[in-house]
Q: What sequence folds into this?
């Protein structure tokens, strides 16, 4: 039975209740296989990865390390970030709470009663996580117990049962079930006897969300604090001194100043001229002080962190910045040209799309030949034709700023290496077709009337492009920007082929660093923590992109 | 000057510029492919020298790459892996997408959000836990997973992307058809198989194509789970061959042509379908 029909029958007969139940079960049966696979290989790994990242884990699981892997990667910046994530959780809780309070007030409905089932549900989730963490190592251990024995079904089942029946596991499971039963009972009773509004389940969901956010924030904040205290205690035993708190406060203060200056700057435009002037001045000075604090503190932290990882992040940033604007600019131009009334439109589209669909390993093989360091390689031959010296291209670790101006900068100032520039060119070449097709679809969605009206008003084609095409295309542009930036953070295949030992890791983006740490150095726990930092970077970029888009993107 | 002539002439100049840019773009897009083909027919001295075209086409390069470099095995492996994955995707994703589009059950919204959240997760985060899981499954189960087909196919038999795409299509099918099917006594499964799937052929084709390309291009995961060439798929095969072949660029190019050929042929056949499928996914994503 579909949604419409069941809604149109408020009084359900016994038969239709049965068929509704049957439909529910059939629905679960339909999604079960897909969820089994996605759950095991898409959702479970996220939690499992957190577990791995908090352990010393080299092929086989080792001892619990807490946040040490993160501190090893980011040095004391890790503590700062964890505190900030905790703060963000609390902030999200307040925001959600405020929204739901307004909603309840408007409907004049009770809200606080839902805190009982919400707290119980959250406790149930925590109890379940505890159960999972207790059971997981036992289940993983089954494989070791099977070693050297004949692998029969019975033996496997009995070993699995043994793990399942462990007293600790069982009591954790019972506790979980008990709490969930209590939560369910509370929910039922409230719904049955105290229910005084139609949106009650929404309130329950919202309050549960709030409780989960608060709990996550508090646990994370407390745990980070405990870890810092532990680090101090350990340092004291070894007679060293630490400056974690000092660093945490300085860096946090720096970021806070940046944040406030941004908020102030934004609110300045709403004020009258004089006050906005003052606001801007204050904001600018806060920005300067904050940035100065960070410039003083961050490099020290970065130096103490994992060099390969920071290098990987720098390469990724160069890669993103070098790729995205060109890729989007060129494909927008091509899309606008193709959108004109020209012959052979589908032919051009067919060709431009080729690089995107062909396997990247094969096309990267051609680029590897093109940009090989051999003097007889195609690009060096072209250089030779113009009388220039051959270049090392993909084997060249030197930054292009240094190469162009003969300077000798290090780090960020050197710019991307020439090898990375080749990778960037490859990336642009590959994705232009894709972006063009999406832009074309976006252009097709703009009504022709607007252009006709503008033409009547005497707007030039540039004006039309600037004031009609660009604003109306902004959702597409936003989507493609996000996709391209995230794409550079995930890039693997072509970099794997194009990287050479001679480039000294100057093309190894964050993904590559994680892969090497995992596959070559077999440091599973450490690599997992790096992967989580990458996930964090991607999430922050998405949020920032959303914030910018909120203001700039024009949805029709 | 005559007013009527001027705008027309201007348009013509514009046309010339537009076509020049478009053709220039075409050349840039095609040059690597042309070089790939031309290089695959050269002999060793030409390939490492400055030659642009082979003096006499060396068709034997293809035979050499196909047999000596194991491209035959890689090719077959990838075909088998793609076929198994596609079968799984068609079976599992269509049913799940149907349930999300046209059935009611408690927790549907939550489950769908959970599903979509996997799209945000970069591959790098799940490499490690999945590798541990797959190793474990192979050690306790009846067949090994490492260096074998299950690790290369089963994790990819359902994807949030495919379910999302199919669901968009399924929910556009008018309710009248379902009412009619019910009168004829058809249940959900029969309605899905006999009415929905034939109607959703374009979406299904897109899913199949994406799955095929996905398994053809897979590199990082196969490097992790195959240590021997037995089940090595083609992209990994080509990438390891690139290192083995060293200076024999003509063979590298022949291997590359072998690798891209099936995709190009497939693309030329279903080209329109393909670009449209991508355009719609892009706009809805």
A:
């Amino acid at each position: 039975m579909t949604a419409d029909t069941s809604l149109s029958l408020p009084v359900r007969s016994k038969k239709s209740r049965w068929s509704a139940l049957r439909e529910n079960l059939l629905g679960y049966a339909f999604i079960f296989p897909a969820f089994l696979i996605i759950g095991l290989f898409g959702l479970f790994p996220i939690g499992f990865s957190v577990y791995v990242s908090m352990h010393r884990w080299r092929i086989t699981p080792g001892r619990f390390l807490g946040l040490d892997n993160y501190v090893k990667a980011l040095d004391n910046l890790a503590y700062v970030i964890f505190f900030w994530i905790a703060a963000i959780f609390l902030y999200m809780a307040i925001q959600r709470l405020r929204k739901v309070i307004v909603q309840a007030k408007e409907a004049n409905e009770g809200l606080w009663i839902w805190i009982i089932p919400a707290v119980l549900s959250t406790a149930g989730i925590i109890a379940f996580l505890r159960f999972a963490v207790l059971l997981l190592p036992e289940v993983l251990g089954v494989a070791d117990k099977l070693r050297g024995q004949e692998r029969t079904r019975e033996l496997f089942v009995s070993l699995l049962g043994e793990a399942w029946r462990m007293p600790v596991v069982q009591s954790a499971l019972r506790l979980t079930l008990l709490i969930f039963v209590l939560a369910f009972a509370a929910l039922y009773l409230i719904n049955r006897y105290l229910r005084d509004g139609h949106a009650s389940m929404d309130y329950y969901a919202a309050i549960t969300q709030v409780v989960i956010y608060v709990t996550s924030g508090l646990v994370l904040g407390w745990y980070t604090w405990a870890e810092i205290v532990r680090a101090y205690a350990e340092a004291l035993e070894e007679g060293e001194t630490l400056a974690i708190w000092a660093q945490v406060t300085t860096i946090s203060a720096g970021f806070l100043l940046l944040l406030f200056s941004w908020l102030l700057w934004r609110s300045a435009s709403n004020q009258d001229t004089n006050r906005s002037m003052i606001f801007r001045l204050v904001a600018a000075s806060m920005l300067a002080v904050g940035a100065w604090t960070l410039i003083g503190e961050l490099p020290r932290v970065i130096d103490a962190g994992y060099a390969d990882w920071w290098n990987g992040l720098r390469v990724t940033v160069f890669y993103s910045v070098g790729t995205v604007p060109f890729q989007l600019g060129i494909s927008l131009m091509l899309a606008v040209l193709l959108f004109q009334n020209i012959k052979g439109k589908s032919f051009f589209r067919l060709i431009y799309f080729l690089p995107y669909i062909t396997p990247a390993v094969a096309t990267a093989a051609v680029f590897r030949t093109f940009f090989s360091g051999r003097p007889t390689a195609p690009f060096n031959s072209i250089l030779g034709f113009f009388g220039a010296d051959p270049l090392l291209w993909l084997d060249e670790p030197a930054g292009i700023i240094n190469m162009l101006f003969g300077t000798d900068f290090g780090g960020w100032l050197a710019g991307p290496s020439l090898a990375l520039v080749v990778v960037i060119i490859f990336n642009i070449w590959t994705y232009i077709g894709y972006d063009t097709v999406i832009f074309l679809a976006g252009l097709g969605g703009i009504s022709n009337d607007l252009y006709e009206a503008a033409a009547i008003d005497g707007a030039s084609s540039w004006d039309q492009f600037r004031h009609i095409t660009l604003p109306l295309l902004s959702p597409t542009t936003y989507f493609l920007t996000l996709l391209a930036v995230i794409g550079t953070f995930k890039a693997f295949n072509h970099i794997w082929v194009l990287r050479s030992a001679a480039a000294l890791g100057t093309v190894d983006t964050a993904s590559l660093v994680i892969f090497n740490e995992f596959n070559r150095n077999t440091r599973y726990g450490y690599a997992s923590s790096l992967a989580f930092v990458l996930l964090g970077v991607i999430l922050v970029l998405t949020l920032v992109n959303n914030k910018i888009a909120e203001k700039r993107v024009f949805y029709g | 000057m005559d007013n009527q002539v001027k705008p027309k002439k201007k348009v013509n100049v514009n046309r010339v510029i537009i076509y020049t840019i478009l053709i220039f773009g075409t050349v840039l897009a095609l040059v690597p492919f042309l070089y790939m083909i031309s290089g695959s027919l050269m002999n060793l001295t030409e390939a490492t020298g400055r030659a642009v075209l082979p003096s006499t086409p060396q068709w034997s390069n293809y035979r050499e790459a196909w047999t000596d470099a194991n491209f035959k095995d890689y090719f077959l492996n990838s075909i088998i892996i793609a076929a198994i994955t596609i079968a799984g995707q068609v079976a599992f994703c269509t049913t799940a997408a149907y349930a999300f589009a046209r059935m009611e059950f408690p927790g549907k919204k939550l489950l769908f959000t959970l599903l979509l959240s996997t799209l945000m997760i970069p591959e790098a985060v799940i490499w490690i836990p999945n590798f541990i899981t797959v190793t474990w499954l192979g050690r306790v189960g009846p067949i090994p997973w490492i260096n074998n087909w299950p690790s290369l196919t089963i994790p990819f038999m359902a994807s949030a992307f495919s379910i999302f795409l199919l669901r968009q299509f399924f929910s556009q099918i008018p309710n009248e058809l379902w009412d009619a099917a019910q009168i004829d006594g058809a249940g959900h499964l029969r309605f899905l198989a006999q009415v929905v799937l034939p109607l959703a052929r374009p979406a299904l084709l897109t899913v199949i194509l994406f799955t095929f390309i996905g398994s053809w291009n897979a590199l990082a995961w196969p490097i992790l789970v195959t240590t021997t060439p037995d089940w090595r798929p083609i992209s990994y095969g080509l990438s390891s061959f690139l290192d083995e072949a060293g200076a024999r660029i003509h063979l590298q190019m022949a291997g590359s042509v072998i690798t891209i050929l099936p995709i190009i042929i497939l693309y030329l056949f279903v080209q329109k379908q393909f670009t449209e499928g991508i355009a719609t996914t892009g706009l809805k994503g």
Observations:
- Residues 1-12 of chain A have pLDDT under 50 and may be disordered.
- The first strand of chain A starts at residue 55 and ends at 58.
- Chain A has four domains: 1-53, 70-237, 244-300, 318-508.
- The longest helix of chain A spans residues 14-53.
